[in-house]
Amino acid sequence: MNSKQPRRLEDFDAVGMPDTPQLRSQSTDKRLSAVMKAKRKGRDNIFSEKIQVDQPFSPKNFPKSAKTRKLLAQVLKTHYNLHALFTSLSDDLIKLTIDAMQEKKVVAGETIIEQGDSGDFFYVIESGAFEAVKDGKQVATMQEGDPKYNSFGELALLYNCPRAATVRATSAGTVWGLDRLTFRHTLASQDHEQKSNVTASLRSVPLLAELTTSQLNKIADAVQPVHFAPTERIIMKGEPGSIFYIIREGTVACTEIGDGSDRMADVRLKSGEYFGERALLTGEPRACNVHAETETTCLVLDRQGFNELLGPLQDLISMNMRFKTLRSVPLLKNLSGSETQTVAEACTKKTYKAGQYIIKQGDVGKDFFIVSDGSVRVTQTKGKAEADVATLHAGNYFGEMALIGSDRRQANVIAESSVELYTLDRDQFQKLLGPLSEIIKRESERRLSDLGGGDPGSAARAGSPLEDIGLKDLKVYGTLGTGTFGRVKLVQHLKTKKTYALKILQKAHIVAYKQQTNVMSEKNVMVQAQHPFILRLVSTMKDKDQLYMLIELCLGGELFNYLHCYPARGPNEYIPENHNRFYASCVLDAFEYLHDKDIIYRDLKPENLLIDDKGYIKVVDFGFAKKVTDRTYTLCGTPEYLAPELVLGKGHQKGVDYWALGVLIYEMAVGYSAFAGGEQAPDQMVICRNILGGKIEWPAQIQPYAECKSVIQALLKKDVAKRLGCMKGGAKDIKQHAWFKSMNWGKLRGSEIKSPWTPPITNPLDTSHFDPYDDEEEDSQPYRDDGTGWDDDF
Questions:
Q1: Residues 5/484, Cβ–Cβ less than 8 Å
Q2: Is residue 455 flagged as an active site residue?
Q3: Beta carbons within 8 Å of 566's beta carbon, 6+ residues apart
Q4: Does residue 319 form part of some domain?
Q5: What's the pTM value of the predicted model, to 2 decimals?
Q6: Model confidence pLDDT, tens digit, residues 163-193
Q7: Is the model's pLDDT at 51 over the cut of 90?
Q8: Residues 85 and 20 occupy one common structural domain
């Protein structure tokens, strides 16, 4: 994502309450309390500049003395707020960070940072004395050697935010500054290079050649560095094998390879090469000795860790073959990725002997087959003669028409040798997914073009679910919310009397903030995301100066208000556990759907979850949503909900959404988010320090609910490879956790479960569950077309 200005929920999918007497309820003033305002404080979205690791980046290098370098290293590694951030970095990254710091000489009275300004530099004091002044009052003094106050401006390294205080020199001195873009680009580039090298090494292993890029990326995230001294034994011949090694640095020698007449010459392996790969398949005895010849660092992965992450390797290879084959069947092309995975997992293995008929021409069949090993011969009988038609090998399929109906077989299929097949019958398919004919019809109507490339507007033109509604068809009732790019209005369709939210975006503002790509991406994600728990985009419109998005209106308000401001609950009461599970289930089901389309959301919080008139959740605000097939590096989201890999600037994937789900469940259970440090307005550096340190407190109200606590702990694993949802079962692993065992996912998706709370709504214009906004009119900002055609397909 491109850099953007700080924004609120209202910038995208906010639905507030019009400040007009006929639409307000008497409970409004109760909700607009100091408590609510305090809880909202610090919950705005944050973001850093877009990091593009595929473009060349040359880190800065400013000369400095050995004494200065030692001072800077000591401050970075012991800094009170940034300790967890810098201690997670390698020595090489610390060196690059210090290289990039630049000297600034200051004189007494000079202001280095001003309260309220946007800042992008962090400073370390080498000499001199300084004071921090907030709202005109001195709040701290700082100088070299003070273990807590020897630097300032640290939050600027994470994201662009207003300075909390003014810092000025009280004597002449020297500071060293590090800018955010250099820091985050250095971290991202190094992470990308290391992960790319590991992935390339994994791809070169024949045993892993059939794994997908996503699977290789998971392994790359899971490998751990291990150091070996010169001559140190790594593998002993004859011992059971369980660990696979990739050499990152150094050289190793493989000796005593084989036995007797099969004995082979010793082999030397260097950086980028690997050994011990068969340990991922089996614990068979090692075939040679391996020792380090030099100082050596290896990246290691054990078989148990591999199995937890992706499942047994042989099963994974077989599953990938079935999945790939199913995706190539024209009849099944409209299945989603998760549906295809379900079918692949349901296939059962069968073995046939050479010459055995698998299918006979003319028989009525209901089985579909994939060839796993061996080959089969396809023949057709004409009269008394039987003619060969084709030979099918591993990865080929036959009998697919049986999944639709009971048609007679059009050919014979005979095992040419002993053959292993995977098979699925029509009854099992329908039990899992329903009639294939209905799936084909349903998916063909809503299948949209991939977000990853091509014409960004093709989705809206071909099979789009958008309705033909124009501005002339709408009556405006008032303002629902305001944001950086315009306003959200409550509108009613003149013909149907149905109410909607109309988001009005000023083109001039979008271009000024360089948000063209993000706005178009948000619109395209919403067009593609047709799910009961995702807010629906109804129609889009535009004129010379503005873009318009007509959006589904959810009159139950934000989940945030229900959690924290519901007047029927006392100040220390929070929602019951069954409410928590219901709302979390809606979010999880929506995430599974988005992730199946390779879309990560990255903006989960109660403010972005609306409650519809049935009491069900709708996920809103897709300004940070992004299609990701590999990794992405831009920091964005809400501080309290950021995953560690986001804070650290490491590449992140779908796992950030599952971390955020854990934070959401925690907040619903105890009344504040897991890393905010309690009920008080959170300090953002404290939040980041708690996230990186993995510090979670378990207050009394959650202690009785062991399964709820267990699922939170599993989702808030700092190690992505061990986080629930990031292993072989994906979202299904979360759904199978004991805390969700009572949930009927089919009935939930069909809105057949009674929601725990149904908002009282008196009429289609009743927005009493929302906060009021002033209904001042905003003049349209004139837009001068920049000629790029960025909004042609809106």
A1: yes
A2: no
A3: none
A4: no
A5: 0.80
A6: 889 999 999 999 999 998 888 888 888 888 8
A7: no
A8: no
